[in-house]
Write a structure and sequence with these properties.
- The protein is globular.
- The chain contains 17 helices and 22 strands.
- Helices cover 33% and strands 25% of the residues.
- The strands form 5 sheets. The chain has a 6-stranded mixed beta sheet, with helices on both faces. Strands 16-19-20-13-21-22 form a 6-stranded mixed beta sheet, with helices on both faces. It has a 4-stranded antiparallel beta sheet with strand order 2-1-4-5, covered by helices on one side.
- The protein folds into 3 domains: 235 residues, P-loop containing nucleotide triphosphate hydrolases (Rossmann fold); 171 residues, P-loop containing nucleotide triphosphate hydrolases (Rossmann fold), CATH 3.40.50; 78 residues, no CATH class.
- The protein has 501 residues and is an alpha/beta fold.
């Protein structure tokens, strides 16, 4: 189906990919793995027409293939499902699905709205998303947007589909639905390229694997010949110490209450939420997509207002407190959508790191920034997240996903928060960066910071958290101490229609 022959790509003289050579047969699934920055996205952007190679060639269905843009790649039957969503929040689901090919009334310039709704409904049904096609995109959760992105790719009836971290925003149930859909594509004779840091899924779903390291092929072969430790060794160039987060060691009881939540409700989002988060504690929130986890985080941080209930930060009420006031009083929020909400992509790393803490470094009546003082404060923060020292002047958009996430974390660490809300802090990053963030979360708690951790990965929650809340349709259905952590019990409480004590 597709063949790479000595493909190379450089940026400002620095090699990003190549030379790389491998092929993918029709009806097969190829797993493409590597650490952030290994060259996976660059290689797929060459395939998708977003970039042009400096050397080498490609062949599609045994014919020369050299697309000059994404539109040409789409016409050739290639669909790219990006990890970072390419959707317009001010348009409806249906409008996003058919943005460049609206059905029209005969040969007129007018959109055939009835046909648009019908065709959009068929695509949404394929990915199992039960929403009105005329729903505005900005009302959808990130996981739902990911499914729309997949449905959009199917609209062109592609013969080669590239999945770039497609499950990073999906719950276990939605991911399994996607995997069943992928199996159906294979039966139809379509070829798939699957990029993921979930190495267990890669081994389970793929026929063959290609492992990239520093832009070169570090290993390739049938998936059955690989194990997770071997994959990590090839990706990182070293033998891994562990492939899963080690459980947090037993610790002393947590300190004073840092955040108290009493009867918080918002119609259609959450209902009667009550809990306490203590200093030095890691409190996890589990639940399926649409359970209200991210919506609750937005309410706690002041982005959305509750209809009822009370919030107290370090004993003081938050009634009427703005986001800026919450930050000033020691609250931080790492959003799940780092590119859309957590970063200014065109700005430099240094400017992004300073964003949340600028008021603390403003001096005099003119409020000029104390740049030497700011730079001095940034040094230990960058060291804490292991961000490369020479990254300051680079635009954030040029960094890998893992390094972008480190910038978001470092930005909030500079504010010295007493309470930090982490919404999917390891989504879409490689194993090495994930382990570093796990270490940082533990270090924050050990230093007395109260951590509220939201994650779709049960393994991550049960390894890091001291307690766990399970949300189901906006309600807390289970509160579990560490000794009570059990995957079956958590899932039972999280699944719609189920309840747990």
């Amino acid at each position: 189906m597709i063949e790479f022959q000595g493909i190379e790509k450089r940026f400002a003289g620095v090699r990003a990919v190549g030379p790389v050579s491998f092929d993918l047969p029709p009806g097969a699934t190829l797993g493409l793995v590597g650490e952030n920055g290994a060259g996976k996205s660059t290689l797929m952007n060459l395939l998708g027409g977003n970039l042009q190679p400096d050397a080498g060639s490609m062949r599609l269905a045994e014919r020369p293939y050299a697309p000059h843009g994404p539109a040409e790649a789409m016409r050739c039957g290639i669909a790219f499902i990006h990890q970072e969503l390419n959707l317009f929040g001010n348009l409806t689901i249906a409008e996003n699905l058919f943005l460049t090919r609206f059905p029209r009334w005969w040969r007129s310039p007018f959109i055939y709205r009835t046909g648009l709704r019908a065709e959009a409904g068929k695509l949404l049904a394929q990915v199992g998303l039960e929403l009105d096609p005329h729903t505005p995109m900005d009302r959808l959760a990130v996981g739902e947007c990911q499914l729309v992105e997949i449905a959009k790719a199917l609209a062109g009836d592609p013969r080669l589909i590239i999945f770039d971290e497609p499950t990073s925003s999906l719950s276990t149930r939605e991911a399994e639905r996607l995997f069943a859909l992928m199996a159906g594509f294979r039966r139809q004779g379509r070829s798939l390229i699957y990029i993921s840091h979930a190495l267990g899924d890669v081994l389970r779903l793929c026929d063959d694997l290609v492992i990239l390291r520093d832009g070169l092929v570090a290993g390739r072969g049938p998936a059955r010949d690989f194990t997770i430790p071997r994959l990590i060794s090839l990706m990182a160039g070293r033998v891994p110490e562990a492939t899963a987060p080690a459980p947090t060691p037993p610790r002393e009881p947590a300190g004073a209450v840092a955040l108290a939540v009493r009867g918080v409700s918002r119609p259609g989002v959450v209902r009667d939420i009550s809990f306490e988060l203590r200093r030095g504690e890691i409190l996890g929130i589990a639940g399926m997509m649409g359970a209200g986890r991210s919506e609750l985080a937005r309410i706690l941080f002041g982005l959305d207002a509750p209809a009822a209930g009370e919030l107290r930060l370090h004993g003081r009420p938050l009634q009427g407190a703005t986001v800026r006031e919450r930050v000033r009083r020691g609250m931080a929020f790492v959003t799940e959508d780092r590119r859309g909400e957590g970063l200014c992509l065109e700005a430099s790393v240094a400017d992004n790191l300073a964003l949340a803490a600028l008021p603390a470094f403003a001096r005099g009546r003119a409020r000029r920034i104390d740049r030497p003082g700011l730079q001095a404060a940034l040094t230990p923060v960058k060291a804490a997240v292991r961000l490369t020292a020479d990254a300051d002047g680079r635009a954030v958009k040029t960094l890998s996903g893992g390094n972008q996430q480190k910038v978001v974390l470092a930005k909030w660490l500079l504010t010295k928060p007493g309470v930090i809300i982490l919404d999917e802090p390891t989504r879409g990053i490689d194993v090495g960066a994930k382990c570093e963030i796990h270490e940082l979360i533990r270090a924050l708690a050990a230093a007395g910071t109260a951590v509220l951790l939201i994650s779709s990965e049960l393994e991550e929650l049960t390894a890091l958290c001291d307690r766990l809340l399970v949300l189901n349709r906006g309600e807390i259905t289970a509160t579990l101490a560490r000794a009570e952590f059990d995957q079956a019990r958590i899932l039972a409480a999280a699944l719609p229609g189920e309840r747990s004590a």
